[in-house]
Design goal:
The chain is mostly beta strands. It has one domain. It is about 10% helix and about 30% strand. A hairpin with a 2-residue loop joins β14 and β15. The longest helix has 11 residues. It starts with a strand and ends with a helix. The model has no long low-confidence stretch (mean pLDDT about 95).
Amino acid sequence: MKVILSRKGFDSQYGGMPSPILPDGTLLSLPIPSKEDTTKYTDLTWNGKSYYELIQELKPSSRIKANYTCHLDPDIRKEAADRLDGWKLTFGQTGFPLGHLQKQKVGIGDLFLFFGSFRQTEFIDGKLSYVKGASALHVIYGYLQVGDIVCSQDSVPHWLTEHPHAKTERWKQPNAIFIASDLLSLCPEQPGAGCLSYADKLVLTKQGCSKSVWDLPDFFRDIPITYNANAWKDDCFVSTAKGQEFVFEANSEAVEWIKHLLLQ
Protein backbone atom coordinates (compact mmCIF):
# COMPACT_ATOMS: atom_id res chain seq x y z
CA MET A 1 0.00 0.00 0.00
CA LYS A 2 1.26 3.45 -0.90
CA VAL A 3 0.83 6.19 1.69
CA ILE A 4 0.82 9.88 0.84
CA LEU A 5 1.71 12.49 3.45
CA SER A 6 -0.31 15.33 1.95
CA ARG A 7 0.31 18.91 3.13
CA LYS A 8 -2.89 20.99 3.16
CA GLY A 9 -4.52 24.04 4.74
CA PHE A 10 -3.37 27.37 6.14
CA ASP A 11 0.28 28.17 6.80
CA SER A 12 2.46 31.28 6.85
CA GLN A 13 2.29 31.58 3.04
CA TYR A 14 -1.31 30.54 2.32
CA GLY A 15 -3.70 32.11 4.79
CA GLY A 16 -0.97 33.72 6.86
CA MET A 17 -1.60 31.77 10.08
CA PRO A 18 -1.82 28.19 11.41
CA SER A 19 -5.10 26.31 11.50
CA PRO A 20 -6.52 26.02 15.02
CA ILE A 21 -6.38 23.11 17.41
CA LEU A 22 -9.71 23.95 19.03
CA PRO A 23 -10.18 23.68 22.80
CA ASP A 24 -12.25 20.49 22.38
CA GLY A 25 -9.45 18.84 20.35
CA THR A 26 -10.97 19.47 16.91
CA LEU A 27 -8.25 19.87 14.27
CA LEU A 28 -9.99 22.45 12.10
CA SER A 29 -7.98 22.67 8.90
CA LEU A 30 -8.69 26.03 7.24
CA PRO A 31 -8.83 25.78 3.42
CA ILE A 32 -6.49 28.10 1.55
CA PRO A 33 -7.79 31.23 -0.23
CA SER A 34 -8.64 30.73 -3.91
CA LYS A 35 -10.05 33.20 -6.41
CA GLU A 36 -10.85 30.29 -8.76
CA ASP A 37 -13.45 28.78 -6.43
CA THR A 38 -16.93 29.79 -5.23
CA THR A 39 -17.13 28.60 -1.61
CA LYS A 40 -16.73 31.51 0.82
CA TYR A 41 -15.28 31.32 4.31
CA THR A 42 -18.67 32.62 5.45
CA ASP A 43 -20.30 29.50 3.94
CA LEU A 44 -18.35 27.13 6.18
CA THR A 45 -19.23 26.64 9.82
CA TRP A 46 -18.03 25.03 13.02
CA ASN A 47 -20.21 24.93 16.12
CA GLY A 48 -22.39 27.83 14.97
CA LYS A 49 -19.59 30.14 13.83
CA SER A 50 -18.39 30.65 10.29
CA TYR A 51 -14.78 29.98 9.38
CA TYR A 52 -14.54 33.70 8.58
CA GLU A 53 -15.57 34.60 12.13
CA LEU A 54 -13.03 32.17 13.57
CA ILE A 55 -10.26 33.60 11.38
CA GLN A 56 -11.11 37.13 12.49
CA GLU A 57 -11.10 36.11 16.15
CA LEU A 58 -7.73 34.39 15.83
CA LYS A 59 -6.14 37.11 13.72
CA PRO A 60 -8.08 40.40 13.51
CA SER A 61 -5.42 41.75 11.13
CA SER A 62 -6.00 38.92 8.64
CA ARG A 63 -6.24 40.04 5.03
CA ILE A 64 -9.09 37.59 4.45
CA LYS A 65 -12.38 39.44 3.95
CA ALA A 66 -15.98 38.29 4.25
CA ASN A 67 -16.33 37.89 0.47
CA TYR A 68 -13.15 35.81 0.06
CA THR A 69 -13.49 32.37 -1.49
CA CYS A 70 -11.47 29.29 -0.60
CA HIS A 71 -10.38 25.90 -1.95
CA LEU A 72 -12.37 23.40 0.12
CA ASP A 73 -10.19 20.39 -0.57
CA PRO A 74 -9.71 17.81 0.85
CA ASP A 75 -13.40 17.86 1.63
CA ILE A 76 -13.62 15.48 4.58
CA ARG A 77 -15.65 17.36 7.22
CA LYS A 78 -19.31 16.75 6.35
CA GLU A 79 -20.76 19.17 8.89
CA ALA A 80 -18.78 22.15 7.54
CA ALA A 81 -21.29 22.91 4.74
CA ASP A 82 -24.62 21.98 3.17
CA ARG A 83 -24.31 18.80 1.08
CA LEU A 84 -26.03 17.30 -1.94
CA ASP A 85 -27.72 13.91 -1.50
CA GLY A 86 -25.22 11.10 -1.86
CA TRP A 87 -22.22 13.27 -0.92
CA LYS A 88 -18.99 11.43 -0.09
CA LEU A 89 -15.63 12.47 1.30
CA THR A 90 -13.20 13.42 -1.46
CA PHE A 91 -9.87 14.94 -2.38
CA GLY A 92 -8.89 16.49 -5.72
CA GLN A 93 -5.51 17.10 -7.28
CA THR A 94 -4.34 18.64 -10.52
CA GLY A 95 -1.31 19.70 -12.52
CA PHE A 96 2.21 18.80 -11.40
CA PRO A 97 1.21 17.37 -7.97
CA LEU A 98 -1.23 15.01 -9.70
CA GLY A 99 1.49 14.04 -12.13
CA HIS A 100 3.69 13.11 -9.18
CA LEU A 101 0.93 10.90 -7.73
CA GLN A 102 0.44 9.23 -11.09
CA LYS A 103 4.18 8.67 -11.52
CA GLN A 104 4.18 6.93 -8.13
CA LYS A 105 1.20 4.84 -9.32
CA VAL A 106 -1.09 5.99 -6.52
CA GLY A 107 -4.46 4.32 -6.98
CA ILE A 108 -7.37 2.51 -5.39
CA GLY A 109 -6.55 1.21 -1.92
CA ASP A 110 -3.79 3.73 -1.25
CA LEU A 111 -4.00 6.07 1.72
CA PHE A 112 -3.67 9.85 2.07
CA LEU A 113 -2.64 11.18 5.48
CA PHE A 114 -3.39 14.90 5.51
CA PHE A 115 -1.21 17.14 7.65
CA GLY A 116 -0.85 20.87 8.07
CA SER A 117 0.29 23.71 10.29
CA PHE A 118 -1.69 23.91 13.55
CA ARG A 119 -1.54 25.83 16.83
CA GLN A 120 -3.34 25.37 20.14
CA THR A 121 -6.22 27.73 20.91
CA GLU A 122 -8.41 28.69 23.86
CA PHE A 123 -11.53 30.75 24.47
CA ILE A 124 -11.05 34.11 26.15
CA ASP A 125 -14.24 36.04 26.89
CA GLY A 126 -16.08 33.86 24.40
CA LYS A 127 -13.64 34.48 21.56
CA LEU A 128 -11.12 32.07 20.13
CA SER A 129 -7.46 32.97 20.67
CA TYR A 130 -4.15 31.26 20.11
CA VAL A 131 -2.60 30.04 23.34
CA LYS A 132 0.15 32.50 24.25
CA GLY A 133 3.55 30.94 23.63
CA ALA A 134 2.16 27.89 21.80
CA SER A 135 4.19 26.98 18.73
CA ALA A 136 2.94 26.08 15.28
CA LEU A 137 3.19 22.33 14.71
CA HIS A 138 2.82 19.96 11.78
CA VAL A 139 -0.06 17.67 12.77
CA ILE A 140 -1.84 14.86 10.91
CA TYR A 141 -5.51 15.90 10.95
CA GLY A 142 -7.30 13.54 8.55
CA TYR A 143 -7.08 10.64 6.17
CA LEU A 144 -8.64 9.21 3.02
CA GLN A 145 -8.28 5.74 1.56
CA VAL A 146 -8.96 5.76 -2.16
CA GLY A 147 -12.05 3.81 -3.15
CA ASP A 148 -12.57 5.29 -6.62
CA ILE A 149 -11.03 7.94 -8.88
CA VAL A 150 -12.88 10.33 -11.18
CA CYS A 151 -10.59 11.01 -14.14
CA SER A 152 -12.84 12.93 -16.56
CA GLN A 153 -15.54 15.57 -16.39
CA ASP A 154 -18.01 13.17 -18.02
CA SER A 155 -17.60 10.83 -15.04
CA VAL A 156 -18.44 13.37 -12.32
CA PRO A 157 -21.54 12.15 -10.39
CA HIS A 158 -24.25 14.65 -9.43
CA TRP A 159 -23.34 14.68 -5.74
CA LEU A 160 -19.80 15.77 -6.65
CA THR A 161 -20.68 18.69 -8.94
CA GLU A 162 -19.98 21.32 -6.25
CA HIS A 163 -16.46 20.06 -5.58
CA PRO A 164 -13.79 22.57 -6.70
CA HIS A 165 -12.05 19.98 -8.88
CA ALA A 166 -15.32 19.18 -10.65
CA LYS A 167 -15.45 22.62 -12.28
CA THR A 168 -14.95 22.85 -16.06
CA GLU A 169 -11.81 25.00 -15.86
CA ARG A 170 -9.96 22.40 -13.79
CA TRP A 171 -10.37 19.79 -16.54
CA LYS A 172 -8.33 21.97 -18.92
CA GLN A 173 -5.24 20.41 -17.34
CA PRO A 174 -4.56 17.01 -15.76
CA ASN A 175 -7.15 16.64 -13.01
CA ALA A 176 -8.55 13.89 -10.79
CA ILE A 177 -10.84 13.48 -7.79
CA PHE A 178 -10.15 10.71 -5.30
CA ILE A 179 -13.31 9.34 -3.64
CA ALA A 180 -13.04 7.70 -0.23
CA SER A 181 -13.62 4.00 0.23
CA ASP A 182 -16.58 3.04 2.40
CA LEU A 183 -14.37 1.47 5.08
CA LEU A 184 -10.70 1.70 6.05
CA SER A 185 -9.03 -1.58 5.13
CA LEU A 186 -6.46 -1.32 7.94
CA CYS A 187 -9.20 -0.78 10.53
CA PRO A 188 -12.49 -2.03 9.02
CA GLU A 189 -14.46 -0.64 11.96
CA GLN A 190 -13.62 2.89 10.75
CA PRO A 191 -14.88 4.81 7.70
CA GLY A 192 -12.62 5.11 4.67
CA ALA A 193 -11.95 8.81 5.34
CA GLY A 194 -12.41 11.30 8.12
CA CYS A 195 -11.05 14.00 10.39
CA LEU A 196 -9.06 13.22 13.52
CA SER A 197 -9.15 14.78 16.97
CA TYR A 198 -5.94 16.07 18.49
CA ALA A 199 -3.64 13.57 20.18
CA ASP A 200 0.09 13.83 20.83
CA LYS A 201 0.70 10.84 18.54
CA LEU A 202 -0.57 12.86 15.56
CA VAL A 203 2.09 15.55 15.98
CA LEU A 204 4.88 15.18 13.43
CA THR A 205 7.00 18.04 14.77
CA LYS A 206 9.81 17.09 17.14
CA GLN A 207 9.36 18.68 20.55
CA GLY A 208 11.18 22.00 20.88
CA CYS A 209 11.97 22.22 17.16
CA SER A 210 10.62 24.17 14.21
CA LYS A 211 7.52 22.59 12.69
CA SER A 212 9.30 21.00 9.70
CA VAL A 213 11.62 18.99 11.96
CA TRP A 214 9.79 15.71 12.49
CA ASP A 215 10.10 12.99 15.09
CA LEU A 216 9.39 9.98 12.87
CA PRO A 217 10.00 6.43 14.11
CA ASP A 218 13.47 5.09 13.23
CA PHE A 219 12.11 2.46 10.84
CA PHE A 220 11.39 5.31 8.42
CA ARG A 221 15.14 5.55 7.81
CA ASP A 222 14.73 2.49 5.58
CA ILE A 223 11.67 3.81 3.72
CA PRO A 224 12.25 6.17 0.77
CA ILE A 225 9.84 9.14 0.85
CA THR A 226 9.52 11.19 -2.33
CA TYR A 227 10.95 14.74 -2.19
CA ASN A 228 12.76 13.79 1.04
CA ALA A 229 15.75 11.76 -0.12
CA ASN A 230 18.21 13.48 2.26
CA ALA A 231 15.82 14.41 5.04
CA TRP A 232 17.37 12.42 7.89
CA LYS A 233 19.73 14.50 10.06
CA ASP A 234 21.11 12.48 12.98
CA ASP A 235 18.11 12.04 15.32
CA CYS A 236 15.39 13.78 13.30
CA PHE A 237 13.73 14.04 9.91
CA VAL A 238 13.77 17.51 8.31
CA SER A 239 10.90 17.56 5.83
CA THR A 240 11.31 19.46 2.61
CA ALA A 241 9.92 22.99 2.58
CA LYS A 242 8.21 22.53 -0.77
CA GLY A 243 5.95 19.85 -2.16
CA GLN A 244 2.38 18.78 -1.46
CA GLU A 245 2.40 15.01 -1.78
CA PHE A 246 5.14 12.90 -0.15
CA VAL A 247 4.69 9.26 -1.19
CA PHE A 248 6.12 6.10 0.36
CA GLU A 249 5.49 2.37 0.21
CA ALA A 250 4.31 1.16 3.61
CA ASN A 251 6.11 -1.83 5.12
CA SER A 252 4.66 -3.82 8.02
CA GLU A 253 6.06 -1.43 10.64
CA ALA A 254 4.60 1.59 8.84
CA VAL A 255 1.20 -0.12 8.63
CA GLU A 256 1.19 -0.68 12.40
CA TRP A 257 2.25 2.94 12.97
CA ILE A 258 -0.60 4.18 10.77
CA LYS A 259 -3.14 1.96 12.54
CA HIS A 260 -1.95 3.39 15.86
CA LEU A 261 -2.42 6.93 14.52
CA LEU A 262 -5.90 6.39 13.15
CA LEU A 263 -7.41 4.41 16.03
CA GLN A 264 -8.91 7.01 18.37
